[in-house]
Specification:
This protein is α/β, with parallel strands linked by helices and about 325 residues long. The chain has ten helices and eight strands. An eight-stranded mixed β-sheet has the order 7-5-6-4-1-2-3-8, with helices on both faces. The radius of gyration is 25 Å and the shape is elongated.
């Protein structure tokens, strides 16, 4: 009998973990009864009652497992690590907030049984804030155009992954993994399933502008050269422009020595303009260096504090 592994990543989801556990378990028993299953929560060091609730869930069903992280290791490392710890014939990754519909699980499995190694759920519509939806769309369009690898628009990582892909994930040893980019890059046979992303069932989102910026920078530094190219080309163009402006001022001053007074304004404006350009590209370069630094240090993805029910594997 084939085994389905379901990973649920969570952080401060005390209002959702019990409900999502029941929903996934009922879906698997009702529509996927010819498969064995395991459900695993990976908790990113929640500070509310999430862990106590997960412990109670695990007591009631030995097929439900848990990994508790020693601290918050970020929105990318934690689920990636959790997926690598499971031993099913495939792994389904979803969020704990009910924005990823559990009703798609049978469709994922159906596509997988027909030969797909990865089944990607694509947000064709969303009930989230329309401004955020618009900004995400712009981001996906930009990264798709700039990347050397074709990126998948409106793909959050929600989907099914065959054990052969999970094995590749285990062997990558990437300390800053970006799952969406890895899926697009490695070229496994993949199919897409469209869905409408619902609102959170309860609680507040933990994504903020900083976390969204962090995701954008990770994808930019991992899969594009555009920042470095813009810095190089832009620097060259501005240097040439500066040379001709300076030459114009010099010649004009020689021809109109007594009547032409350049004043301090052009000098001050030019200085602030070029300094701002330099600071922008130094910051952009710093993002690349920071990404390289994280990979060179090669620290573990996650440090575990506790495991529950893994002795039942």
């Amino acid at each position: 009998m084939k085994k389905i592994s379901v990973l649920i990543a969570c952080f401060n989801e005390e209002e959702n973990v019990v409900g999502i556990s029941k929903a996934v378990e009922e879906e698997l028993k009702k529509n996927c009864s010819n498969y064995d299953y395991e459900i695993c929560f990976i908790d990113n060091c929640s500070t509310d009652n999430t862990r106590a609730l997960i412990r109670e869930i695990c007591k009631q069903n030995p097929k439900i497992k848990a990994i508790f992280n020693a601290r918050n290791f970020g929105q990318f490392n934690s689920p990636y690590y959790g997926m690598c710890q499971l031993n099913g014939d495939c792994v389904i990754k979803l969020a704990a907030d009910f924005q990823d519909p559990v009703e798609l699980i049978p469709q994922f499995i159906q596509k997988w049984e027909k030969g797909a190694k990865i089944v990607s759920a694509i947000k064709t519509r969303s009930k989230e804030n329309p401004v955020m939806r618009f900004l995400r769309t712009i981001y996906y369009k930009l990264i798709k155009k700039m990347s050397d690898v074709e990126q998948i628009e409106h793909f959050t990582g929600f989907g099914l992954y065959d054990k052969s892909f999970i094995e590749v994930m285990r062997n990558l040893h990437d300390p800053t993994p970006f799952l969406r980019g890895i899926v697009a890059e490695l070229g496994f046979k993949r199919v897409e399933i469209p869905y409408t992303q619902a609102k959170r069932k309860a609680g507040k989102t933990h994504n903020n502008w900083y976390s969204l910026f962090d995701a954008a920078m990770l994808s930019f530094t991992s899969y594009t050269k555009i920042g470095l190219r813009i810095a190089t080309i832009g620097g060259f163009i501005l240097a040439v422009l500066s040379f001709f402006v300076a030459l114009f001022y010099f010649i004009y001053k020689l021809l109109n020595w007594d009547s032409f007074a350049a004043g301090m304004a052009p000098l001050v404006i030019g200085m602030f303009f070029f300094n701002s350009i330099q600071l922008f590209f130094i910051g952009f370069l710093g993002e690349y260096i920071m990404s390289i630094n994280a990979r060179v240090m090669n620290r573990p993805l996650v440090i575990e504090e506790e495991r529950i029910n893994f002795e039942n594997i």
